[in-house]
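Sat 14:20. Reprocessing the chain from the morning session after the first attempt stalled halfway. Input below, unchanged.
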Amino acid sequence: MFAILIGVSLFLGIMIGWVGPLAFPPIAQVAQPIVCPGGELSQDIIRGEAGNEITYNSAFQCYADDGAGETGEDITGEDVTGQAILAAIAVYSVIAFVLLFGLGLRAMLSQKARLQNALSRMDAPGVVMEGKTINMRGATLETKLRTLATLHTQGLINEANYERLVAEARAKG
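Finished this time. Tokens:
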């Protein structure tokens, strides 16, 4: 699950940090403090045509504030295209990871809270919540089946788990 979360976060980071600046250039400015500290990060969008294809690319320049323009010298920027794109991808990947992890954690906590709430409203002697697990060892078969049916109808356990747990409860008696 963690690998999927990292993969999705990287995908989102690549889409936002690499492709996003072509549609909305300020997105890439998140890379400015990383690749051009103390200077100005400038983005040029380059349009190219080859036959029937039109392509767009970004080029990033870092213009350091070293006072060069005040003395009449030409100001030349350093090409930081690769660094800017990688920095933007990294920043947006981390943001996506934190948001997705937080949403996943919230969903897991919400599921646990819903289980606890459902169990507290039931008259189910011998059924207790232990961490993320429901312990029904002290319950009668009738109580176990009623508890499982209630959890299933409330959408707290899916059909496959419901069938498996009912079969286990009947087998153990």
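DSSP finds five helices and five strands in the chain.
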